[in-house]
Amino acid sequence: xxxxxxxxxxxxxxxxxxxxxxxxxxxxxxxxxxxxxxxxxxxxxxxxxxxxxxxxxxxxxxxxxxxxxxxxxxxxxxxxxxxxxxxxxxxxxxxxxxxxxxxxxxxxxxxxxxxxxxxxxxxxxxxxxxxxxxxxxxxxxxxxxxxxxxxxxxxxxxxxxxxxxxxxxxxxxxxxxxxxxxxxxxxxxxxxxxxxxxxxxxxxxxxxxxxxxxxxxxxxxxxxxxxxxxxxxxxxxxxxxxxxxxxxxxxxxxxxxxxxxxxxxxxxxxxxxxxxxxxxxxxxxxxxxxxxxxxxxxxxxxxxxxxxxxxxxxxxxxxxxxxxxxxxxxxxxxxxxxxxxxxxxxxxxxxxxxxxxxxxxxxxxxxxxx
Amino acid sequence: xxxxxxxxxxxxxxxxxxxxxxxxxxxxxxxxxxxxxxxxxxxxxxxxxxxxxxxxxxxxxxxxxxxxxxxxxxxxxxxxxxxxxxxxxxxxxxxxxxxxxxxxxxxxxxxxxxxxxxxxxxxxxxxxxxxxxxxxxxxxxxxxxxxxxxxxxxxxxxxxxxxxxxxxxxxxxxxxxxxxxxxxxxxxxxxxxxxxxxxxxxxxxxxxxxxxxxxxxxxxxxxxxxxxxxxxx
Lengths: 370, 233
Hints:
By secondary structure, chain A is of the alpha+beta class. Chain A contains ten helices and 20 strands. Chain A has two domains: 222 residues, Rossmann fold, CATH 3.40.50; 125 residues, CATH 2.40.50.100. In chain A, strands 7-8-9-3-10-11 form a six-stranded mixed sheet, sandwiched between helices. Chain A has a five-stranded antiparallel sheet with strand order 2-1-4-5-6, covered by helices on one side. A five-stranded antiparallel sheet of chain A has the order 16-20-17-18-19. In chain A, β4 and β5 form a beta hairpin. The relative contact order of chain A is 0.12. The model of chain A has no long low-confidence stretch (mean pLDDT 87). Chain B is built from ten helices and no strands. In chain B, α2 crosses α5. The longest helix of chain B is centred in the first third of the chain and has 34 residues. In chain B, 38% of the residues are buried. The model of chain B has no long low-confidence stretch (mean pLDDT 89). Chains A and B meet through α2, β7 and α3 of A and α6 and α7 of B.
């Protein structure tokens, strides 16, 4: 378990940070929030690059910071591998020397993947002799990932590692991040303000706003909540759903989830591939009678669990229970009244097979994860 | 008029090169230290140190030479113990000429080194830190290589300026042929001697050539270093 509790104030009347959260000992914990919410400050304090006014940081048994007991381990002894937004590769060293920089300085008894393995994992074998200046942004960030991982850290810290890249480069690096997460077996604290990265990588989510923790918990559980404006207030709000590829059906793919099956035009991978998709609330429609003569492929019997106001006064969130799974639908208040929706009412949830975002469905997750 | 230099003139050229080299060798390490203090240090006397370092740029060189004479003279507060305990005499010696030149060119080196240091991205040092590099390790493997263009530029500039140092050298080390008579001093002496115009012209030409070569060398090194540090992709 990673325990983080920090208090810090910039200047006398400046920005104040006051957060406390725990992160699981494996998997990705995402610190998610708007710019200026203090998420990068938290990462700096965990790495030791910023000394907070007060706080405690512990990774398992190792206490890295405890101002009450006057413990403050120097960053070079914390063994926190950091991936910065700008890769921060040493420009005067070759890619290989960059990669080996942390490895050479890691404690002899620290375990971790070997050099060849990391190079293969990140697909950077052909770059080893090059200088960082000759690499593309995506390549640089992959080398930075390898360098951090090879320093044999007990914890990986990622400070918006994709934010400085354009969409194409992001798409290039994201799968490597997913592979690294699965191979490293390390806890990862990941700072981002991009929901697509949350969907692809987050196991655990810490929502931050103005220097405070708004909510924390498993990413999928938080995505079902309608009381968190940070998530529910977004145009792309919706439930994160873990599913498995079941079979191909006439050009479509059938995805199984707890309580049912969905047809999609996305082709995420072979049978048995586990993945996570975001079902946007605005893509889900509700019918009180089983519809006929409709092009929509996914018509799921469901029960209204509850109805909460949406961010806009003319809108409402309706939570629908499909077996043990909850889906989130965003519809108008007018429709709620016209259909006389109320908790317990049996309904049909409608979802077009073409609405799934192919990009979001593209990251397979291995067995036993999440 | 002979185009070739006489043995005496060669001595002046050789001496100039020697004095300039020794002055750079003496001042380089302290200059890196002082530049570090000025660029990164957070202490109360920083502005004072900054002013002190730059003093030789604004004070007349003769005054600097006089100051050195007061401090390092046989009866000076530093010169006396040096002479008594170690038998080292600086006034009127080649070493003294090198010291005077070093003091005069010190601000030039410090400025260049400081510029080089300020150009080093502290984020890279932070990255090295998170990868397990302690302070000395970090300095030697990241900061020093990245600031080396500044150090080199400082050394070359100081060397070129050192070849021509006049006022401080003549005041502190005097104008002794074969001992402290560097190029500018020899040129000065030639202009004071009837019929010395040819000597002065030849030595002036040598001075000019050395200066141009120094500048070209500095440019060449800067380009090579830039490539080595991955500036030019």
